[in-house]
Fold these 2 entries.
Entry 1:
Amino acid sequence: MDETQFLQLIEQHQQIIHKICWLYRDSPEDREDLFQEIVCQLWKSAPSFEGRSRFSSWLYRIAINTALTAFRRKQPDLRYPSVLPDMPAGIPDDNEQMERLRIAIRQLNDTDKAIITLYLEELSYQEIAAITGMTENNVGVKINRIKNKLHQLLQQKK
């Protein structure tokens, strides 16, 4: 993959990167830094992309791993605001239920946050398993547990 192809693919899939940044960073500056770090890691990893999976699945794997690694390195002061910052374009944010769901997702641990994000992007269990390194069966179990936890969190907020 040459530089032009890489940049075109990043342009086509930048919403995925924005979603990951939004989930793992609170401030716009931190999201911007993470976005740049993810793109850098994607570029470094580009020679390893063999096309056996969809580009978006490969991108998710790199982006989530980078977000988690950068998170462990930086250890920012985490504050969970009662109102979340604006979501990237293309994600509805005008509805109270969606806002409550976003707040609940932000309260999940990093692994659960990644899994539910991939699930909400309508990736198959097989694709989620490939990205996260879990078995498909484990992905199914985790998704059911995450749904239950989100349900509990949403019930608490009423």
Entry 2:
Amino acid sequence: MMLQRALSRYGLTEWGGEDMTMSAEKSYELQDSGVLRFPEGFVWGAATAAYQIEGATRDDGRGPSIWDTFSRTPGKVHAGHTGDVACDHYHRYREDVAIMRDLGLHAYRFSIAWPRIQPDGSGPVNPRGLDFYDRLVDELLGAGVTPVVTLYHWDLPQALEDRGGWTNRDTARHFADYAAIAHARLGDRVETWTTLNEPWCSAFLGYASGIHAPGLADPALGFAAAHHLLLGHGLATAALRASGAEKVGITLNLAPVVNDDTAADRAAAEIVDGLQNRIFLDPLLRGEYPADVVERARRFTDWSFVQDGDLEVIGAPIDLLGINYYTPQTVAARPGEAGNPVFPGSEGIAFGGADAPKTAMGWAVQPSGLTDLLLRLSRDYPGTPLMITENGAAFDDTVEDDRVHDTDRLSYLDGHLRAAHAAIEGGADLRGYLVWSLLDNFEWAEGYNKRFGVVHVDYGTQRRIPKDSARWYGEVVRRNGL
């Protein structure tokens, strides 16, 4: 069905008349399939990350992070953008929480900036940094929004990077200390804690390919960083449990790997699945690294960074697996193809986009990939509750008469929520959905060039404008369904 009819069901036709209809070539149109109800108690919310929205990078004793350093390195971030101001959430958090309240969100996933709490990554605690998150948590609870804390969303204190960062085993121990500090201050009001956000990105974009901070490009460092991130998760989980944390989990960026189903293509897909998905899923949920990944990585590393007892620490039970899904990986066997640096050991494999509509990031829009992923996790790693902790899309939005008619984003979200519902019907233990992102923000190496928010931010004035997708999402939350 056309989007206009979907909006009319929610009384939203006044948002833009015919301008709200979707172009005919969109293959991911909304479907007229009646109201789809989600399970009772399903959690609806939104997510952000500290460096992407807070700004105030020099306020109240915050130390520098690797992203402060990286964004100031010429040529690393679009147009030389930095997170110095971002959305100024540090000073405008009350306004942002009011938006969440007005949308009826149940939960808000935000990250704590480690450099605000320990400017050098270890040692003395900065009380003013903790004070900010204290105020934020209280504001959320006062608005009826449940806080969900992520301890690490890529902003490692620069002082730790100067000592080797995640390639140094000591960083994992410092991370556990920081987790205990954060819980001691906020644990009386925060129930759910996630340790890491997307350790694959931290390890392989940051240390193996140089695309993200700290900008190093050595496959051996990428594998070492991946292990120490996982070890940091395990040690932090133990510290949080010892402090009385109720729910502890981790968030991974996962993707089904799509191929043309020839024997060679299936083999290529298995390699990439190992390098993106199983390299984290297996240690966390099975207590072991996948043998094929270990063998493939031996051309870069001897795995000597793995010590006795590490996998037992890493594989301790978790209460929640966060899933960040945007698009599948599409691969094909192609002898002679150079390896993709973000997947060390992927020589002979071509990476391409699926034949589908694309977001402004060039990512294929394939909601069915989310269904496949959730069902695969339920089948291969049963027993762990799942939550979609990020899902969303960047599109080239425009403001017209104080409105943002982001029909493509609205369609994207509708399609993926339907895909999530299909997975639940198929038996997936999916507990909630957090849209990425609440606000337009600093999009890492893309700077302010890409907008993922359901709320538009004018970076010059810091004015917030809820987009049509935000208003629609608020109705989904209210109805607990589509």
